[in-house]
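Office hours follow-up: a student asked to see two folded examples consecutively, so here they are.
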Amino acid sequence: MDRDQLADKNLLVVSHGYKHFVKSQVDVLAEYFDTVTVCVRYNWFADVASRLPGDSGDGFGKDSKIAQSHVPENVHVVETPLLYLPVDFQRDHFLGQQHARKVRKELEDHPISFDLIHCHMSWTSGYVGARLKEELDVPYLLTVHANRNWFQEQLDSDNDRLTRAWTDADRLIRVNRRDRSKLEPYNDDVVHVPNGYDTDIFERVPTESARERLGIDDETPVVFALGTLKPRKGFQHLMRAMTQVRDAEPDARLVIGGQGGMRDELESLAEELGIADQTDLLGYVESETLNDWMNAADMMVLPSYSESFGVVQLEAMACGTPVVATKNGGSEEVITSDDYGLLVEGPESHDELADAVLEALNRDWDADAIEAYASEFTWETVCEEIADLYVEVLEAQRTEPIPTAH
């Protein structure tokens, strides 16, 4: 593919965030384009709620959705504030229309015309993309990121607007292979492109150096986990498995990074299980420190019920660290060999999970092989595939026959 033909093109991205995986992807793709405009949906009510007691606004406000630093010069972020309650009928059915109106209003005075639209998340960004494709007469691609359970809920829904997001896409991208067949009834152009990891953040450094910076003894077994503190991530089950791990490895420490509404519950559970003195809940972890944890750990554990892909596993592997994960819909496509990690049936299989953690602690892993495998999934590599898709749809648009006038 001749990706150079993108150099004078302008890309519009519609997403639910410009942080983490979307930002990492956009920033690499920006190298191919003249400009990239990112319309980011956020809930302005969450900014108000975040100032009130409780955590009802966590994760939905502007600060949670939009990165303010290290933005490439040719990337322009357009804030798209919406108003909706966390869970209600309006969000499930009418929020797409509100989102589409808001994006069009924000773009009215935008000085750039777009050649291509790429949306992240089927509902509501995908619906916005389908509307914009019709209004602007430019190709539209959609990446479907939903975890396994959320994706099944979308398939079972009666939301015609969500269905339109899938049917109208010029390329429908799913981040795992297994779900392509479920999307093919809606679209003839369904492709698999995995998520990637950010090489600017995650790199292999000497374990001893990482542990020294974190204040961890070289001999302490460290089991690391990372994610939003919510039931789907399964950290409560990892804690229960750790009671068995501790019987065989009395000095083993469980370290969990991430924020979320389950923090108090997990702290209480650690006390109840008698492992509070060997369990650390770090909260939010800055990038540099996170890289140290990934390098310092003996393994990274993802005990989740449901994932679309699980990029956190690649981030650990990029540091040469093996992964223990549950069969959650995404991990099976990352841990493709026991040379890189171990899979267990599910988060509630405490005995199997404990056995896998112990096996990982005692195995002599080939860190070089793990790192080499992860290098296949850098954003630079993944974005080459995405850029090729862009070229394909633009070339297809140029060769479409002109309708005959009657």
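And the second, which I mentioned at the end of office hours:
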Amino acid sequence: MSDKVSRRQLAKIAGLSAAAMAGALEAAEAKPAAPPRNGGGFPAGFVWGTATSSYQVEGAVNEDGRGASIWDKFVRIPGKIEDGTTGDRANEHYHRYKEDIALIKELGCRAYRFSVAWPRVFPDGDGKPNPKGLDFYNRLVDELLKNGIEPWLTLYHWDLPQSLEDRFGGWRSTETCKIFGDYAAYVAEHLTDRVKNVFTLNESGRFVYFGYGIGIDAPGLTLPQAEVNQIRHNSALAHGFAVQAVRAHGGRGTRVGPAENIDACAPAIDTPENVRAAEIALREMNAGYLNVIMTGGYTDAFLKYAGPNAPKFTDAELKIISSPVDFLGLNIYAPQNYVVASDQGAGFMPLPIPKSFPHMNSDWLRVGPETIYWVPKLAAKIWKTDAIYISENGASGDDMVRPDGRIYDTDRIMYLRNYLAQLQRATSEGVPVRGYFLWSLMDNFEWVYGLNKRFGLYHVNFDTQVRTPKLSASFYRNVIANNAAGV
């Protein structure tokens, strides 16, 4: 991947340019923030978890009737994966899930976010389901519950059945959206007797733009902006179909919501005018997906900026897209835009990010702990939600195995300590963050980077499949045990 291409280029992903947007709206009055709450830790009942995704850990791509996904094809295109590896084997989680669940239990986590591989359950995306595929997730869920760990299920984490890409153009067609709804209904019917929390699509912003816009992710296409905007609209529509399917076919008490890599906007300086500017920026930079889901309409500024490239849609589609959700999942890693107030139109101005800005092992992963304070706080205000979950947060590191066999990842601990302190600051002020899922449980196949980027609390030797706890595993275990970041 080029150094010039960030993993989460969300200003472009949302179909908006922050600089262009600065002249598209008029500023509005700021509202007073909620009064702070007392307390030294996280709220009682705060959900502590960790996360993985199917293609990144399961392996066994040709076993028990699983069909091919777009990633199975994409990883075989020369030059697409940095180290030339694939997810064919990955972490062998398909066979080692009991061992991995034991690792989750060792951390003290009471929740685990995993994704269902769509082509494992429906090899062709639709048609006849594969019983052996569903059986794996039944076993996984039962083993989690046996160990006192609550399963949180993601319906789609990028492994679209290749058959749907071949037949319909994947997310280019609303036919895929409808089939996704059918798939969601089937999963809900068979698993939500035990799984009570369901995420719909993971990171529409990433898989749409990177997969169909600039060709970095599967299926590797570079389509015109109008088509990319339409695909993003289709992904929002698929989300809506999935919400309706879970409502209709899920067990009593099942909750559902999106998990999105929100374009993270924060005020450069904490003043009322800059905070208001960040609020406007957060809404408009996420107008192409999250805002339409949460409000049922595209903003005037989004449509004006998109112009002839704006997605085509109907009122009926907007109604489906905005089907009420129970929570909002936010994947928060790095600041995308620092903004200040401006007297030009919109009331905000994005600032350039200096080359010297600190970052982790991955160049795109800037270290901006205040992001995880401001984004949930502003999101709760903009979209009037009372339940936010940090569905992903974590960091890559060098993770060298030392002569004593240990991994002293103090860089990851630094990152987590500072981010969690800012998240604790948010909850102490009444921001409705109800839980946190650390990415990731263990090192895995990190998409275009292959096995080169390590995000895990557990180091994985991909030759032997031995899992070794890093120092950060001890750190996170202590955070969970104390329900506080300052440990």
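Two things to take away from it. The chain has one domain: 10-482. Residues 225-249 form the longest helix (25 residues).
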